[in-house]
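Example record for the data management plan.
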Amino acid sequence: MFAVIESGGKQYIVKEGDVIRVEKLPVEEKSEVSFDKVLMVGDKVGNPYVENAKVEVKLVRTAKAKKVIVYKFKRRKGYKRKKGHRQWFSEVKITKIVS
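Corresponding structural encoding:
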């Protein structure tokens, strides 16, 4: 069985045992969390969410992603700017899909 969940303004297709990266969650590592914003479970489609459905996950780790370089420049003007950014993420393992 698979489900479509919403987290951090993005949608993810998940099934039990998957490990996915979502926006940083404000919880401790190795703790249990459940996502209530389930858009679809199997063939049940919600409007906007499926009632009484949730996806239980275990937080594996919280870390920073690889650096993304932002580079601006204007030709012939001597203008250059280089910036880097590392986004926080939470890696979660899907333990159970309750429909």
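Summary line stored alongside the record: The chain has a mean pLDDT of 95.
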